[in-house]
Amino acid sequence: MELAELVALRPRPGAGLLLGLTRRCPLRCAHCSTSSTMAGEQPAADQLLRFARSFTADDRPEVLLLTGGEPLLRPRLVAGLTAVARSAGCRTALLSGMFFARGGRVPAPVMRVLAGLDHFSASLDAFHEREVPRADVLRAVRRVLDAGVPVSFHLTGSGPADPYLAEVTADIRRAFADRVPMLVNQVRPVGRAASWATATTTAAGPRADTDRVRPCAMAAWPVVAFDGTVLACCNQQTVDQRPAPRHLTLGHIARDDWPAVRARSSASPVLRLIRSTGPDHLYARYGAPAAPGYCAGCRQLGDRPELLSGADRDGAGPVGELLDRTAARLQVEAGPVALMRRHGCPPYADLVALGGRP
Ligand code: SF4
Ligand code: SF4
Questions:
Q1: Which residues are near ligand 2 (CB < 6 Å)?
Q2: Over the stretch 21-32, which tens digit does the pLDDT of each residue have?
Q3: Domains of the chain with bracketed CATH
Q4: Are 230 and 223 in contact, with CB atoms under 8 Å apart?
């Protein structure tokens, strides 16, 4: 599975599931969004496996995304989840901070786990390079690529004008002869670590135009947080906030299975409207003062009953379902480069389609 295929699925409700396997990580990146340390929390392996076993051939995500913290600190769990997902026809991708890559190494037990994946992505940015040298990361990723696993880089910079991004993308293009795609994002207040296939929703359009329709594709894939709570999206503040906003909570892996979580996400009137019009539009549509920011406004929808009841009225039933499906179809048809132009670092959006099939 190439990166472009994975990103192309991002706007489709229920096409993916993000699992945060652990908040532990041996690296100490200064911008770590998950504040990961070796003492971090992690959901119970048996609960994660039980949840994955509820996938069926007829009701499953297309892709399971394993992230952290550092998911490769739980190699047996990664292998178990990969096998369970595959038995239901679901593919698995994983994002690593490359803690194992010093000296360009991929230890044999790590390679055995990676060989079972459908896609492997390596994080790289100025903060990571202080932990593991870039040359070592590139050599390790080449080993994984040579083992036949589709790979990509997940790069982060300060913005479109960041000279680091220009230099590192050129270096990777040269090193891999344009065979390896890249997802380029911007450092945000919540950082990057759990943001694989996520995006900067705040950069989705000019703030002055607050009633504009700006769909949130990030609300399409459920996310399992480190305490087992299932959230509607991957925004790190949303994932971390407790109690979680009710309208963005889909359940808990100790109590719920995939069909229940997927059904709640797809049937929720407010999530349908967030996915198809975005939160700013809801504030304008139902006569509230402008939203206090794209995601902040979304999290505060629960404080405004008039907005939730308006969304319930307009997002329920076949019309809401049709709106949700149509918005997803249009974004899927626009393709992964368009999605990254809207949600990633625009000048580098086309790098998502390098190498593999666009
Ligand atoms: S950013 Fe990633 S690799 Fe760095 S400390 Fe956080 S979880 Fe670990
Ligand atoms: S908080 Fe709301 S707008 Fe932000 S990513 Fe999550 S669902 Fe989308």
A1: 201, 216, 218-219, 232-233, 235, 238, 274, 279, 294-295, 298-299
A2: 999 999 998 888
A3: 3-257+335-353 (3.20.20), 267-328 (no CATH)
A4: yes
